[in-house]
Amino acid sequence: MPFKKELFLGIGILVIILLLLSWVIFLKPNSVKQQEQPSVNAKVTIFQPKSGEIFLGVLKRAAIAQPIADKIVQTLNRINFKFNSLKPMDSFKFFYRNDTLVKLIYKKNYNTCYSFNNIETGNMTISMSCQEIATKVMLVKGEIKSSLYESMLEIGEKPSLIANYTDILAWEIDFFTETQNGDSFFVLVEKKFEDSLLVDYGQIEGVRYKGQIGDFSGFYFVDPKGNRDYYDAKGQSLRKSFLKSPLRYSYISSYFSRGRYHPILKIVRPHKGIDYVAPSGTPVSAIGNGVVTYAGWYDGYGRFVELSHSQRFKSRYGHLSRFGGGIRTGRNVTQGQIIGYVGSTGLSTGPHLHFELLQNGSWVNPLKIIPPRAEPVKPEYYQGFIRVRDNLQMRLTAGN
Ligand SMILES: [Zn+2]
Q: Which residues make up the CATH 3.10.450.350 domain(s) of the chain?
């Protein structure tokens, strides 16, 4: 019967739709589950014996799990190792990957090493080699997918490289707002490996950012007088007389404004600075060379530092938890020097830096001021710079 046929067809279609729906709802999310993060957490910790401490004591202090400590001792027993008293200059280097102990180098009397490898596999091996740190200049490059931070972590780099890279280009690009998916980044950087684990970075030699906003490069150059900086292709410094911000912050919670509702005082009043939110203890740097004109408690500002710079600029830093070493009224500071640490002292709702900039005694919006660039490459060293630049430029664009 045609009617029955249609009914069957209808039910059939319904079933197919339901199956499709359930696939979309239940199966699809599983099939796109998070890609596994590559190991970015390679870490090395070093312990030195305290006076009278025994071998197992150091392992215990380093919080090495008992079964692993036992295995290390057994392995040493097998090669008739003498557990004499440890010397203060002996060292224990623990290598971790994603918080799992993978290697230990015990260095005895400066030059004898016992290297325990493959600890995480359960098949620990021992060798007598003192593997030194291997250094290699490498090109890190990639494309922005969500943010620069995430994209760099995804290819196995550490946050310190990201921070240093963005510092170099801070005046060229706002990495919070001006990056776009599909933009590309390049960093020519010295990498330090211990036993093929990336443990640290050395000098960044060159950087490039190629995006919709523009194509920016920076080349590290040290002139024969020892002046060192990052310069653009024309030898102009990428640095300015002021840092773009005095700290590495999470976000800005309050901008410069002529009238703002104050959360504690519950009145509308101007906010004559920028509030940078960052964890308590984050270092705060002098934005430029200058002299400390005040360092102490200052009413609602709590622990407070004021610096005086050239061109009649003053910068002010409030709510600090403590001051940087040697920060006292009358002292000179250089750009980037730590003048204090983020806190919540004075009239403050949580850890942040309240930052103000004054020009000729009046408050100005720090985000609107574009200070002059630092010194360019000196004319007498320009030829030398060009050679360095061309070499770096070639390596930064290699394979691109
Ligand atoms: Zn503020």
A: 42-131, 135-231
Homologous superfamily of 251-364: Glucose Permease (Domain IIA) (2.70.70.10)
Question: Can you say how many angstroms the Cα of residue 9 is from the centroid of all Cα atoms in its chain?
Answer: 61
Asked if the model's pLDDT at residue 25 lies above 80, the reply is: no
Residues lining ion ligand 1 (Cβ < 5 A) are 275, 354
What is the pTM assigned to this prediction?
0.64
Tell me: domain 42-131, CATH 3.10.450.350, correct?
A: yes
| pLDDT band, very low/low/confident/very high, at 35 (cuts 50, 70, 90) | very low
242 Cα–ligand 1 center, Å: 20
Q: How far is the CA of 101 from the centre of ligand 1 (A)?
A: 44
- How far CA 240 is from CA of 65, 170, 229, 374, in Å, comes to 50, 10, 11, 5
Would you tell me how many other CB atoms lie within 10 Å of the CB of residue 104? 22
Q: Give 178-218 pLDDT, tens digit per residue.
A: 899 999 999 999 998 876 778 889 999 999 999 999 999 99
CATH topology of domain 135-231: Nuclear Transport Factor 2; Chain: A, (3.10.450)
Q: How far is the CA of 325 from the centre of ligand 1 (A)?
A: 24
Task: Report CA(354)–ligand 1 centroid distance (Å).
Answer: 4
